[in-house]
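User: My instructor asked us to take a sequence, write out its structure as tokens, and then describe one feature of it. I'm not sure where to start. Here is the sequence I was given:
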Amino acid sequence: MTELDNELKSADKAASEYINIFIDESIHDRGNLIVIAAVFRADNLQELVGDALLECGFDSARDEFKSSVKMAGNPAAQRLRDRLKHILGTCKIAVAICPVSERAAVVEHAGRLLSGLNGEALEPPATVYFDGGMKRALLELPEGITPIHGCDSKWIAGIQVADCAAYLVSMMLLAELGIVTKTVPASTVYPGDEGEIELAWTLWAAVRYALSSGNPVGGYDEDGWCEPLMHPFGLLVSDGC
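Assistant: Let's start with the prediction itself. The structure tokens for your sequence are:
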């Protein structure tokens, strides 16, 4: 049994007591950006993702969700992506963004993202699972948070959900940059409606409540509304951007 196997066995034993954090990246040369998504859930996602794979016609022991798979003309992959979007709605998502030139530093960015989270959002003990494609790096994480590097997303299924999250946020950003302009029938969101609607908007709508945001720090105005000043958490943007 390898060192990684031992780490995973130990982490799995304590999974019911730990917050589990799954991290993956989505790289887009055309936008010169990398989105690093951290997905949080208080229990293991293994069974949920396995059920989603089976219900969409895949073998959970052999197949996995990959956002890089071509979706056009692939209804099974589209159904699986929709299932993972639904699962994401039950999680919390934190995001780091950096330029492609900083690909070797994505784990460091992820560490900074986790270290800057609001205390209530990340309360130790917790285990952080990094996708195997992310270069290992020394991390300074809050006490009680254990990183596990080099994870295979077929066996740590939560990473597949993080892959989906990173892809969805990437598409939103590429749309804001004017690089992606894809639309879908409005009826896919609002049954009976005609016309088209921006794909990026539908993606945002699917996960908006899962996205981490911030705490108001500006007090309240005379009408009782919070001043638009926030202490952000769950978002880190590299200086390289």
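For the description part of your assignment, you could build on this observation: The mean pLDDT is 83. Try explaining in your own words what that tells you about the chain.
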